[in-house]
Write a structure and sequence with these properties.
heterodimer; A: about 325 residues; alpha/beta; Rossmann fold; 2 domains; 12 helices; about 20% strand; globular; B: about 325 residues; five-stranded parallel sheet; 11 helices; about 45% helix
Chain lengths: ~325, ~325
Amino acid sequence: MPERELTFAQAVREALAEEMRRDERVCIFGEDVAEAGTPFKVLSGLVEEFGRERVLDTPISEAGFTGIGVGAAMTGLRPVVDIMFGDFLTLTMDQMVNQAAKAHYMSGGHWKVPMVLRTTLGATRRSAAQHSQSLQAWFSHVPGLKVVLPSTPYDAKGLLKSAIRDENPVVFFEDKMMYKLKGPVPEDDYTIPFGVADVKREGDDISFVATSSMVQVALGAALLLEKEGISAEVIDPRTTWPLDEKSIIESVKKTSRVIVMDEGYGRYGVAAELAAVIAEGAFYDLDAPVKRMGAMHVPIPFSPPLEDLTVPTERAVFEAARKMCGK
Amino acid sequence: MTTATSKTEASRDLAAEKEKWLRAHRQMVRIRLFEEQVNELYTRALMPGLAHLYSGEEAVAVGICEALNLDDYITSTHRGHGHCLAKGASPDRMFAELLGKEAGYCRGKGGSMHIADPATGNLGANAIVGGSVGIATGAALAAKRLENGRVAVCFFGEGALGQGSLYEVMNLAQLWKLPVIYVCENNLYNEYTHYSETTAGTILGRAAAFGIEAETADGQDVRAVHEIATRLVKRARAGAGPAFLQADTYRYSGHHVGDINREYYRSKQEEQHWKSERDPIQLHGKWLVNQHYADAALLEGIAAEARKEMEAAVKFAVEAGYPAEAQVSEDVYA
């Protein structure tokens, strides 16, 4: 039997539906999550199966309903809070950073916040500066939060199920440009543990440590490099916290060259942190300085020719890698 | 029903009534004396950090918490010792927390502004003004979904009226008919600024805008607060939705213990007026005597007992050990 394929969006929906069937404490709330199924139609069909008691449309009040998610999680529900665009995370920051992330620690381990904040990242949708950011670094910076960045439909399903079952607040980023990407997704109930990187492609000459949208870019660049006789390894941490430092360092030790890429801003960003981890763990095995690639340090512009300059492309990664390998 | 039975019942009711109001008095006295010890610890430099005293506002916490069950939820504020005690926390572990000791409610990791205690439904004090409005409302959502009959009380000061998230969750609570009671303790001052300088319109008008049941209570009158709270709690438990209670009260001390010279924002006469004319403990004590529920000796006995309890609790906390260094990285994740 051929492997079943689902889109990224379908994989997310399947994970939610399965978890909601498994555990009736799981509920979803956010803007236009019920009948509308979100603007990306990721949640279509869920309200029909689970009812408006468990799939709740909220007003446009991100701070308010994220806070409600924190309280509901502390007192017996397993909320999956939907933040339509990652840019709107700015409105949830106090609830996530000061409340969700700290409740367990500040209470000496007495309260827990098992909630998931699902949101999007990614540019090139011609949506301009307030609907295009990739803000995963902000959350990865905060102790008490876990941050998940799936890059395939398979990972999306397994990681989301782990997120819902986790006892901690988890921020789950979905690349909105990837919702239509298809890939094999088993029908079984499977989970993917956090803090375990996945080698998406094995190689010997250079490592690409890439997250979310950048994994596809890295894989594309690796194909181009193959034609030049350069073998690139693509390693996807899948979660920025917990972070599988060991697998990343091992890959770099093997190849001796590395480009880290993440669609957030490289400066002070996820890419910066990955670069630091590699510098600390594999410095003496490196044949070239660690290179970071991420969004240009500008607000994402609307004009398509400008916007396309802001995000690393396969071509740009290919060129950078070839140069690093001295070819 | 025979006359004899109804007489027995009447006397039993009277005894219950007397016990209830004596207990309210005892709770207020315990909070006052707890805070006196905090002030003492702080000024003797035994307490690290900040101390925001609840003295003067006792009738609000006690009037409300006496209307709650142990498993009902509260969220509290940076000025939270009173709520915590009124909900049933024990002073020894509270003092231990204030001193950063292992025996504290949060193993010393939270401190004065973050005491939390699942055993008494205390979801935690919060050092972000208005920071817990979502948490309380979320607890009410869970209570409704899980049909466990609990209600959530969200304590906040009038300073939190400046925070937008309050109105976001009030809107949601009314739309979803959640069993949450928003208790606005109006102690007149947002830190060092009179609330009239920060608050346009009326306080109750904010609740009215959402169609939320709203009432005002004299926050110095424990019986008045309790009477309204009992009604609002019953209503919320029955599924009638959220309520808003404005409790007018007064903060005897500064914003925190170190806020000594306050004359640039309020006069000594004003403070004196509240302390001598509007003190919730004195007012309730007088009432107890007038009702023949207590005499001066009984009230003094209550105070003496509470003083002894607080002294022992402080001793416990002072003698308790600090957390081991390894604990710094424990409890970051569940």
